[in-house]
Amino acid sequence: MPSDRRAVSTLRVTCMRFGQKVHPLNFDYGNSLFVLGDSAHLAGNSFRLQIRCEEITGCCTRLSFDNANVADKRQYSDAIIEACREGRSISPALDEGVCFQTRSSTIVIGPARLHIRMATGAVLETTEDGIGINGEQFLLNFRMGGASGFYGFGERTRRLNKHGDSLDFWNVDVVAAFPHTYDRDDYDPAYVAIPFAIIKTGTVYTGVYFDNPDRAIIDIGKIRSGQWLYQSMGGNTQVYLINGPRLRDVVRGFTELTGRAEVPPVWSIGYHQCRWGYRSEADFIALKEHFKRHDIPVSALWYDIDYMDGYRLFTWDREDFPDPAVLNNELKEAGIRTVTIMDPGVKLERGYPVYDSGKAEDVFCKAVSGKEYVGRVWPGDTVFPDFTLEAARDWWAAWLAKFLSENAVDGVWLDMNDPATGFSAAEDMRFANGQLPHAKYHNQYAHYMAKASREAFAKLDPRARPFLLTRSGCTGTQRYSAIWTGDNASNWKHLRMAIPSTLNLGLSGVVFNGPDVGGFMGHTTAELLIRWYQAGFLFPFFRNHSVWNSKSQEPWQFNPQCLAYVRETVVTRYRLLPYLYQCFFVHYLSGDPVLRPLLYDYDGKEFEDLDDQFLVGDSIMVAPILEGEEQGREIMVGGRKCQVRHIVLPPGWWFDLNQGEWLEGNRILQYAAGLEEVPLFVRDGSIIPYYNGPIRNSFITLQEIELHIFSKQRPARLAYFIDDRETRDYQAGRYGTAQIDARVDDGEINVGITEAGDYETGTVNFRPVLYGYQGQWKAVTAVNGKLQTRSCTVQTRSWVCKHLSVLA
Predict the structure, then answer these.
(1) Which fold does the domain 687-807 belong to in CATH?
(2) Cα separation of 209 and 39, whole Å?
(3) Rounded to 5 degrees, what angle do the CA atoms 488, 539, 641 make?
(4) For domain 24-153+194-258, is the CATH number 2.60.40.1760?
(5) Does pTM top 0.85 for this prediction?
């Protein structure tokens, strides 16, 4: 949620003018080059730059640029996992410049330029004046060459392909920084700083990660046509070059470097409900009853800032919440988990135990004066834990663990950690007992807060799976927390923008992410809410969240039609929880995101800028309706108004889950969808694990799984991972894999299931369901060699309000 607008209505959260860069003509460029030891040395009139090369993995090379003008040469970034921080040093050779050769790249450095040839054949080459220094500032200015696609970059607005954009990497409280433009779809920067570029040249992809936690700019052809540049504003930069050739190779390589999200608890990938304005125990009891009465499953209810006593951390307003533990346990008995908001700001108040203990242990950030840095946010004057200190993280973890345990809270929501400081300039906050300037950890403040909060869960039960959500973060934060895309607006632009924003975050390693469904600020409508749910119901994170002064947007707040359509959408999410869970497991093992652009699998030019439809895992494609009535093309079909949109159908066969028929791909469809419909397609050769049992909020048993088989011309395959879904034992290899193969012949479907791994066989009972066929069929299933034969009969399945005939 935004900062206290009363305190910042006329103030920016930062004194920086976003949009301003350092002009390349202000940089000094090299004029001499020589080799000394294991590094190249580049000198200009005002600088000396040492360049070292290391091979990190077979597909990744690191270049370290050490600027003699930088006084503090320490690397403060926590982006790279411990196992990848040391590499094999590569000795330079002289060959038309200084040459470094690794398995994945050949790097040639001249007096003022850099030429990189990847093993895939992709070339990255700077301009003639391509390596520049301006004091501590560092510049790499690349030729665009044949590059036509630029992806990743963490959380960004606008479109998926960032060609032509200029991007600022400095975390901000968006609504406070852009009070008049936050509801547009082009503000920059945002809440999350990940300076990771994925470059598409022809059909080959290359990853370039700039590891420097200070503020940075990446400009992609906006300042100078035909060129793209990286500027860091201070400190030293390490550049990681990640080989393709495919997009998935780059993403997998990047997540190998920076870490992957753990497999989340199943309840956390269900549906969540939140509003800034649920103010009492009675509100939460009423919510539980509303969801039950309207037959909508919900896995978690969220406490916004209203639950606290005067916005003091680790407290409850005991008048409105007399016994939180009793309330939360009552909700848990109904299958509803609870998540509480936690801001970093601690009220500066002597006699308040949290402040007193933090002061006694000296864990708060300092100002230049050496006194505690003081901001002004929700509680008034506030101090901020210095999460860069191990002692501060231990202090925070102890308080948070006590709070979670005593109040039966299941998850933690980290907000205002950009850091938002309200009245005070954030740049005055210093770190490491006041020894380090703000820029060294500004972009990492939320990251270290998430790390400290993760340690709180470990104190309670090191085997349990935590759930954390953070507003801000940086490279590597996915190791500790999910991220949501912050305070969005209830409008069609932000609905449209949510897709490329979520996709680029996923390509940047943040797999567990998503927007506030319905929009946080402003007033949604019934139509907009329905379309939000339809677009977002298969996003990794799925939460309805709204601000206190907006129209209430719980599913039952509009009309019976809206309620019915939203209910069916949410129920379909729960039917597909086994599939989504498998997608998260695949990410943990390989790095593949849950939500993917179509170019993840298809290389055609038509997919470069395609960001209004997306893949969920390997099998499902969603092409939601993103325009309201009278905004796009409309036609009447069977007496009902339908929105028409074009859909790019990739090569191969696709099963249309609205019409219940196979469609041949490699073409563009003009597709009409009524208000109750979201265009959904399943790829030929897919097996979708599906839950068809009773749904009672987060109480779902996944021992009985239907295998929804879609096989037109390709045999269907699925690797289904089986574990206890509650502990982290899978990280020690305690999981099994059911390899499922299905083949459809005349009148018969043959399914082979072979289980292996460190888990008891027969834990899950699988039942095949066949799509796209009619008549009487025989199903022959072999489970670990044991045959089962039965007849398939025609049944009905519902996919988001559409009823299809299937053989089951």
Answers:
(1) Immunoglobulin-like (2.60.40)
(2) 21
(3) 80
(4) yes
(5) yes
